[in-house]
Structures are given as C-alpha cells and as structure tokens.
Amino acid sequence: MKILITGANGQLGRELANQYKEKKTIELILTRRSDLDISNINEVYSFVNRNKPDVIINCAALTAVDKCETEIDMAYKINAIGPKNLAIAANEIGAEIVQVSTDYVFSGNIDKSLTEFDKIDPLTIYGKTKLEGEILVRNHNPKHYIVRTAWLYGDGNNFVKTMIKLSETNTTLKVVNDQKGTPTSTVDLARTIIKLVEDKNYGIFHCTCKGECTWYDFTKEIFRIKGITTTVLPCTSEEFKRPAKRPEYSVLRNYMLELTTGDITRPWQEAIYEYLK
Ligand SMILES: NC(=O)c1ccc[n+]([C@@H]2O[C@H](COP(=O)([O-])OP(=O)(O)OC[C@H]3O[C@@H](n4cnc5c(N)ncnc54)[C@H](OP(=O)(O)O)[C@@H]3O)[C@@H](O)[C@H]2O)c1
Q: Which residues form the signal peptide (predicted)?
C-alpha cells in the first residue's frame, strides 16, 4: 500500500513516518511544503496523479493559533482549501484521505467532555478554518477519516519544549490554570490513525490521550519528571491575554473509537513520562 504524508516535517508527520517505516508492506511518500504546497490546486492534482497513493494523510496545517487571527486568508488557504484539494485529488484516483483536525471546532464553554455527536461552534479563525477543512473533505471524498486531536506534542515545537526552555532562564513561571484539556502524544495519535486506516473505519473520530488537566498541572508534571526546580504559579487567562480566545474546557472523549475500533490511547501522564524519559 502506498501512503502519501503531507506536512511530513511537522510533529505528527514525523511520528507517522517513524511508525509506518516499521511496516514492510507500506511504501511511503513524504512531502514537506517545499515539495508539495497543499494550497496549490495544480501542484496537488499533478502530484497525486503522478504518484497514485492509496491513502493521503494530511498533516499539513497552519497551527499557529494566534497568527491565524491576523493571517486569515493564509489560514483558509492552508487549513480549508488545502484539505479540499487533497480530498478531490484523492477521490479522483479512488484514494482515501485522513484529515487531522482539532478540539478548537468546539467553543469549550460547557463543562463536559465532548463527543463526535456534540455541537460544533468554533470561537477562533483557526477553529473556523479547520472546521471548513473537515466539511470540505467530507463533501469531496466519501472515503475519509477525520481525526480531531488536542494539546499535541512530539518531535517539533510544542508547549513541553517551550516550558523546559523557559525554566532555563526563570526561577518562577506563571502558567494558566483555568483552561482544561488533554495533553496528547503524537505516538498515541499516530498509532490510532494507522489502526483506523487498517480497519477502513471511515468517519469522524476524537483522539486524545486519556484524562484531563490544566496547563498549570501539565507544567508541574513536566517539571516533576525532569527534576526541574523552577517554581510554577497558577494564573488566569485574563492575566495572560492572547489574540485568539482559548476554550475553557476542551476535553474530548474518544467516543467513536470506544464504539468501534477501540481506544488504544494511554493516560496523558503515562505518555508524557515516556516522551520525557
Ligand atoms: N499542535 C497542536 O497542539 C494541535 C492541536 C490540535 C490539532 N492539531 C492538528 O494536528 C495536525 C498536526 O499538527 P502538528 O502539531 O504536527 O503541526 P506542525 O508541527 O505545525 O506541522 C505542520 C506542518 O505543515 C506544514 N505546512 C504548512 N503549510 C503548508 C502548505 N501550504 N503545504 C504543505 N505543508 C504545509 C508546515 O511546514 P512549514 O513549517 O514549512 O510551514 C509544518 O511542517 C494539524 O492538522 C493540526 O491542526 C495540532
């Protein structure tokens, strides 16, 4: 089976490539933005037609949530038009598509874990563009897997690395304690995507690690595992204003996985321990 991974130099792209390389029957095509710009319709159609993958896994996205608030056109081009181009190109050759999406398609205003059957209501440009990406993929290719994740870390830039770096130059750090979510390792997400594709289990899925915490709790756990002595103090979102509004309670329940293929993700504490060790 031939698998095209777009955005292969990002956190998730790298982990998927690592895991697929272990599988002898898989032929991988890995593209970075310089090889294939997903927002360019002609590039996408000719690349996909020439290479004829069986599955396209789209890991490319504009993930800088605050930047999306000002670079709106760019956000729509990468997060909505890009997936649309890939979905149409895949459909024309009978290929499947995996589109990775986000908890930001929800408002996160309700204190309840969210399933795939709950109401979507994005608050930010990032969330809106990612939602359009989901809709366009669903409309243009029936053989789709839409996988929503959150608070992702792996091989690349992420919250975990930022906090460790900040601890090197600060004796005290204030971290937001009124936003809840689930830190998720790219290892767990990639394993789940591979399983969904093996099972041909099409549809919309939530995939985060298990449990929940605030950014403050998460930082405390990172520092505990690493033996970092920097003091962590809780603060409010109000004290740490950002251009894009963050959801307050953004805990996803992997309900469709529970009901179908099975949920193979680990508790978030186990996954972060393995990542840091
Ligand atoms: N990170 C999170 O916390 C998080 C949370 C929820 C959902 N997600 C979703 O999970 C998926 C993977 O995220 P990630 O953290 O692995 O992302 P990432 O590390 O930011 O990687 C995204 C990759 O996309 C590439 N890219 C951007 N524009 C492109 C274009 N026009 N054509 C081709 N490639 C392009 C980027 O390349 P350049 O660096 O060269 O621009 C980058 O390598 C995304 O769909 C994201 O929306 C992430």
A: none
